Amino acid sequence: MATPRTAVSTGVSTGLRRRLLWPPLLALGLTLATPLPGALPEAAAQDCSQQATGEELPENAGPYPLIEQLGLRQAWDLATGEGVTVAVLDSGVDREHPDLAGAVARGSEFTVVPEEREFVRTTPERQRDCPGHGTAVAGMIAANRAEGDRMAGVAPGSVVYPVRIADGVDRATPNTLAAAVDDAVAADVDILNLSFAYPVDAEPLRAAVARAVDAGVLVVAAAGNEGNEGNEGGNGDGAGNGEGDGEGDAVPMYPAAYEGVLTVGAVGEDGQPLETSNAGDWVDLAGYGQELAVAAPGGGYRVEAGTSFATAQVSGAAALVLSRFPDLTAAQLADRLTESANPVGGGRGERTGAGIVDPFAALTHLDGAGDGATDGATGDQGEAAARPGHIPVRPIPEDRPLLSPTAATALGWTGGLLLAVALGLLGAPAVRRAARRGWHAGPTPEERAPAAREPAPPPPPLDWLRGTPDANDRSTAARSPARPPARPHARNRTR
């Protein structure tokens, strides 16, 4: 484990697209040379015939896209990768890049020599990185957070242990690569990032990777950028000769397809698999491989893409999880990353495995049954473990009906009977009413019979109409004085 480092604010990093084809002159039968860590004197860094460089970020550059895509701000609230060392076996790392200040340990360097021993190991104070690939990968993993998050590595608190292949990974012999892997394990690293892929299964490299896995190191490797078709129509036979066996199986890439390796494919910004990302049942996980700004030697940045940098993202996510849960084994760490991934297209894919890595979900994931996971494709853990490089992934739950067909039928009959009983209870009064009327429409006989009427009240007395006053009228007349008789009209007087 590395000691915590002090974060320095300035920049960030990511990846670069490369296709690494195994040279045809590889001698696969060479005997693995015994690595001699520190046994040779320090050698001066070799000059580069061509040096990759970059440019400064624009003044108006916004937050680094991966921060949002991977949900890193939420993840950083829980862990930053402190105390975790990630070995980067690559083209070297420019430790003087401002983004990598305090993030790079003094590593080792392997130079191929035309002698029986094949290579020389040194520990230079300052590594060169001629193509810039290793610096980009290291920055993607461990670069410091810049002001405004314009750049940042996935695990800005982690430390990178660089293992440089001076002549280029694509020109190294299998024994040289095997010695480089052993060197990283001897340095007590926690995670080994292998951002390269070959179509040749070299026994020395296979044995070295197996030793790393047995030592408890999580080995993370790139699926490669050859764009094979997997079981959809690849032409390889798995032996690396590209001739095919007619069954549509893709050419496995190595070290990605070795047993116990966590293999990473790439998706684009839209979350869909990149066509250049290799496919196969040995792909376990995916990261973002679209064009991104990456750290370049000399302090600048450039734009690159590919599975190399998707792999670096997964290594960074693993560093975050291991920082928070330091007691996890490599297998448990791999399971946590795959079980918490976001599936692409709703299920496991040959280019994306269990899905896109999700650092925050991995940090908050509740462990399942652990070693009881089965293979998502076959459901057979034994067959899954037999495939090279396959880490068992807990299958995505299938959509299943809530009830079995038998239970659904029984529930339907029960519901029908209950409905019939309810209708019978509610309809009983209407049935009785219909029976009373002889099952004819209309009112019942009782309803048709006229209702009995009450007798009409007697008419009022009509005496007042005939001029006969009643008692009240008579009493009133008795109290009224008599009027004098009317005087005759003047015209009627007698003269």
From TrEMBL:
Keywords: Hydrolase, Membrane, Protease, Serine protease, Transmembrane, Transmembrane helix. The chain crosses the membrane at residues 410-431. Residues 372-386 have a biased composition (Low complexity). Residues 486-495 have a biased composition (Basic residues). Residues 230-243 have a biased composition (Gly residues). The active site is at D90, H133, S308. It comes from the Bacteria. Gene3D superfamilies: Peptidase S8/S53 domain. Residues 81-348 form the Peptidase S8/S53 domain. GO terms for biological process: proteolysis. Pfam families: Peptidase_S8. InterPro entries: Peptidase_S8/S53_dom (IPR000209), Peptidase_S8/S53_dom_sf (IPR036852), Peptidase_S8_Asp-AS (IPR023827), Peptidase_S8_His-AS (IPR022398), Peptidase_S8_subtilisin-like (IPR050131), Peptidase_S8_subtilisin-rel (IPR015500). This is S8 family serine peptidase. Belongs to the peptidase S8 family. The keyword Hydrolase applies. Residues 225-252, 369-401, 437-495 are annotated as: Disordered. GO terms for molecular function: serine-type endopeptidase activity.
